[in-house]
Amino acid sequence: MNKKHAQPRTDQPELSPTGADSVAVSQRITDLFESLGRREQDVAREILRQYPLSALCTVSALAERSNVSTATVLRLVQRLDLNGYGGFQEAVKSDVARLLETPLQRLSAQTARPDQEGSLLSDLLNRTSQQLQNCHDPVMDADFETATALLADTKNRIYCAGGRHSRHIAALLTEYLGLLRPNVQLVEGPSEGWQRYLLEMNSRTVLCVTDIRRYQPSLLRFSNLAAKQGARVIAISDAWADRHDFGAEVLFRMPSASPSPIDSHCGQLLLAEALIGGLAKKIGPPLQERLALGETLSCVDTGAYNSQSEST
Length: 312
Known about the structure:
By secondary structure, this protein is an alpha/beta fold. The protein has helices spanning 25-32, 38-49, 59-66, 70-79, 84-99, 103-112, 120-134, 138-152, 167-180, 195-198, 217-228, 243-246, 266-283, 286-296, 302-311; strands at 157-162, 184-186, 205-210, 232-238, 250-254. A five-stranded parallel beta sheet has the order 2-1-3-4-5, sandwiched between helices. The protein is elongated.
């Protein structure tokens, strides 16, 4: 991947048309990025850093956050072929509206579009590959180092929790973390009973939480309450998430856009697997002894099975 410009992560789907061009504003900016001037790139990075929230402000506020003049912001908007800053914000609001669509609405929009060249599988693989490449930057590397250090500290007790559509990611993360180190627990059951987990949390607790847009409110509250108890929160979410939504010390914004009616969990799963790999590397040689002991403690009697197989 070309790292000449460390571009902020983006993960925006195509929108329902608001005019002749239905491409999301974030995608337009990404496509133009290499051709922009240095100061215009500063504005582009600021917009993409927390899109779409970062674009729903006044032109002077965006210029101040980007450390450029308002003229530079307006010059970038002009490059996007939008009707001034007002047209720019209307396009951003259309992106926000797209976020609020249900799977049924997305399916209806998909079937209404004419067939594109190539299969859905090909389209999905190509988009996912591009999105995963675009989401990586030096900030993510620094956050990854912080997260793996927290997970590697055996004085910390780890809890994993997922939203209603991300529980499988949390369960898989729990399974593999527990294989590599002790004191790992999955937050299970109805959210009404999660306070029992909170009672055990303190500054030696790490909470790994994962969810994507249309976030589960009870999970967000649980994560923030855990942080208030002193827990260090590692959140794995999508491009629309804010660190404060989860009370997170570290937030990984992974791509979730998909040509199918449902959002993709591929980015979340990949990040979870990367954390497992990073933890294994930090543990080093002692991990081999733990894994070897785990093999001897297997509840599957392979010897008896093999003996029975040989006798038949």
